[in-house]
Amino acid sequence: MRIVASLLLLSLSVACAPALAQKGPAADHPILGIWRLAVPDTNCLETYRFRADGTTLVTSAAEISESVYTIPNQPDRDGFYRLTDRVTKDNGKPDCSGNVMKPGASVTHFVRFHPSGKLFLLCADASGEACIGPFTRVRGEEI
Predict the structure, then answer these.
(1) What is the pTM of this model?
(2) Out of 24, 25, 50, 106, which could bridge 86 as a Cys pair, Cβ 3.0 to 4.6 Å?
(3) Secondary structure class of 6 (helix, strand, coil)
(4) What is the pLDDT of residues 112-125, one digit of tens each?
(5) How many CA within 13 A on the CB side of residue 23?
């Protein structure tokens, strides 16, 4: 009986494996690509690489971090995308604001794209009142 139960669990885990795999946004999602933010009142730049597999690479001052993110393929009725992000790796060095990210840190923001697709704002909530940006699309630095 134990062998049958073990085989059943094994077959279920194999069948469910694709559902557990990291899934990124749609191939034509506006978030995909490289974005840069000139941090206000500083000479510091942050660069965000949103990859198709649902991971990011971020550089900010001396910091280099990686994370996993989720974002819906369509905005809400007010034009915002709910972006969740969880840090998976960080080099332990300070970012443009002097903070050091810790792996496991998770945050939710609301993204609103400019109609041109070349800019977006990153907001604390879907009211659009507490935002940073604009983030500017960067072309030609893809790797």
Answers:
(1) 0.81
(2) 106
(3) helix
(4) 999 999 999 999 99
(5) 9
